[in-house]
Write a structure and sequence with these properties.
Blueprint lengths: L44 E8 L15 E5 L5 E8 L2 E9 L6 H12 L19 E7 L4 H4 L2 H7 L1 E7 L7 H11 L5 E4 L8 E4 L2 E4 L5 E4 L5 E5 L2 E7 L14 E6 L2 E5 L17 H9 L8 E3 L11 H7 L3 E4 L14 H9 L3 E4 L12 E8 L2
Parallel strand pairs: 4-5, 5-6, 6-7, 7-10, 14-15, 15-16, 16-17
Antiparallel strand pairs: 1-18, 2-3, 2-18, 3-4, 8-9, 11-12, 12-13, 13-14
Helix pairs in contact: 1-3, 3-4
Length: about 375
C-alpha cells in the first residue's frame, strides 16, 4: 500500500505585519480508531477413515457438532453415499445392478447409521420400528438402476424433506417406482432441473405419475446453494433436465462443504467415450471445470462412473486435486469391463489421492467393504 503525504506550501510576499495571537476554542477530540478484530482462523480439521465390515461397526450415536461423517455404502455394482452431520442427513444415490442385491441392505445400513425408521417393510425382522426418522435431502444423480434401485424403499421408510432429480425421464419400471414413492411422500419438495409440466404428471412406462398438491415442485439451476446445517451446505454444479440417450450426461454434480472440507459428488459424470486419462476433457467434466473452477477443488472425490475410463481425465483430477478418492464398484461388468479401470487408479495415484474401494473383497464377501470417512476437529 502506498502512503501519500500532503505538504503545505506557503507563499511569501514581502514581510507581513505581525498579528496578535487569536484565542482558540477547543473542539471535540476524535477518538483513536479502534483496529478491527483479527479474523478467527478456522479450526483445523482432520480426515480419517475406517472400513465398515458390518453395521455393528458403525457409531451408535450421531456425530457431535463440528463433526461430519461420509458413508460410502457397499451396494455391490452401484452407488450410495450418506453424508451425516449433527443436524442433517443427505443421501446421494442408492442403487445396485447386482441381481441378488436387495434394497433392504441399504435401509439396514441407514437404520444403523441414522436409527430405525418405518414399518415392517423397513426391517430385517419384519417388525415395525415404531418411529419415523428424517432424511433431509435425497439426491438421485441420474436415472440408472444402479443409482436408484433402493430409493423407493428409502422414501417409504423415512420422512424425506427434499428430493433432487435431473428430471430427465428414463422409461423404466424402477424410475416409475421412484417417482411414485416421491408422489406419496407428504410434505416433500421435489426439485428438478426440468420445468414442471402444467398437469404435474410424468409419463413413465405407460403410466402417469401425478405429483399431488401436497408435494412441492421447484426447478433448480446450476450454481444454486442449499444450507444443510451449521457450517455445512451444498452447491449444484451441473444440472441437465434435457433427456439424453445416455442418462450419464444428466448426472447431477454437487459440491458439499463440511466446515473447511469439501466433498465432490459426481454420480456418473463423464468426459466422453472410454479413453486414457491423458485424453482431453469433455462433456460434464469439462463443463464443471470451466464453469466452477474454484468449487471443483475438493478434498474428497466420489470418482465418476465407478472408476471407468469414461471419466476422471487427468485435467479433471488436477483441477479437483483430491486427497481422498471414493470408488463404489462391484462384481458386475459394464459392457464387458470390470471396473475400476487400472488407468484411472494410476491417474488417482499420480495426483496423490488415497483410494477407498467397495469391491476389494467381492470374491470372498459381499457388502463388507463400506467405508466411513470422519471429518472432525484435529486433535
Amino acid at each position: 500500500m502506498r502512503i501519500f503525504v500532503a505538504a503545505a506550501v506557503i507563499a511569501l510576499a514581502g514581510c507581513p505585519a505581525v498579528q496578535p495571537p487569536q484565542p482558540t476554542t477547543p473542539g471535540p477530540v476524535s477518538p483513536e480508531p479502534v483496529p478491527p478484530e483479527p479474523p478467527v482462523p478456522p479450526e483445523p480439521l482432520s480426515i480419517t477413515w475406517a472400513r465398515v465390515e458390518t453395521t455393528h461397526d458403525l457409531p451408535p450415536a450421531p456425530p457431535p457438532d463440528g463433526t461430519w461423517r461420509i458413508h460410502m455404502i457397499d451396494v455391490g455394482t452401484g452407488l450410495a453415499i450418506l453424508v451425516q452431520g449433527a443436524d442433517f442427513a443427505l443421501l446421494f444415490d442408492a442403487g445396485s445392478n447386482d441381481p441378488g442385491e436387495k434394497p433392504l441392505r441399504v435401509v439396514a445400513y441407514l437404520s444403523a447409521a441414522l436409527g430405525p425408521s418405518g414399518d415392517e417393510q423397513c426391517t430385517t425382522s419384519g417388525a415395525p420400528t415404531g418411529t419415523r426418522r428424517t432424511i433431509d435431502h435425497v439426491i438421485l444423480s441420474h436415472p440408472h438402476l444402479d443409482h436408484a434401485s433402493a430409493l423407493d424403499l428409502v422414501l417409504h421408510c423415512y420422512d424425506v424433506r427434499h428430493v433432487w432429480d435431473a428430471g430427465a425421464v428414463n422409461d423404466a419400471v424402477f424410475y416409475r417406482d421412484f417417482l411414485t414413492a416421491v408422489s406419496e411422500e407428504p410434505g416433500v419438495t421435489y426439485h428438478t432441473a426440468a420445468p414442471p409440466p402444467d398437469d404435474r404428471t410424468i409419463h413413465v412406462k405407460g403410466f402417469g405419475v401425478t405429483m399431488p398438491p401436497a408435494v412441492g415442485w421447484q426447478m433448480f439451476s446450476e450454481g444454486d446453494e442449499m444450507a444443510l446445517g451449521a457450517a455445512a451446505r451444498f452447491t449444484l454444479l451441473h444440472a441437465e433436465g434435457k433427456r439424453h440417450a445416455d442418462p450419464n450426461r444428466n448426472s447431477i454434480v454437487v459440491a458439499v462443504d463440511l466446515g473447511g472440507v469439501r466433498l465432490l459428488l459426481t454420480g456418473d459424470a463423464e468426459s466422453g467415450a472410454r479413453a486414457d486419462p491423458s485424453a482431453a476433457l469433455g462433456d460434464v467434466e469439462a463443463h464443471v471445470v470451466s464453469q466452477f473452477p474454484a468449487l471443483v477443488d475438493a478434498d474428497i472425490l466420489q470418482v465418476g462412473h465407478h472408476g471407468s475410463k469414461t471419466s476422471s481425465r487427468r485435467a479433471f483430477l488436477d483441477a479437483v486435486s483430491p486427497r481422498l478418492a471414493l470408488i463404489s464398484a462391484g462384481p458386475r461388468r459394464y459392457k464387458g469391463t470390470r471396473l475400476p479401470d487400472a488407468e484411472v487408479l494410476a491417474a488417482l495415484a499420480a495426483v496423490g489421492a488415497t483410494v477407498l474401494r467397495t469391491d476389494e473383497r467381492d470374491e470372498t464377501c459381499r457388502g463388507c467393504d463400506s467405508w466411513l470417512v470422519t471429518i472432525a476437529p484435529a486433535p
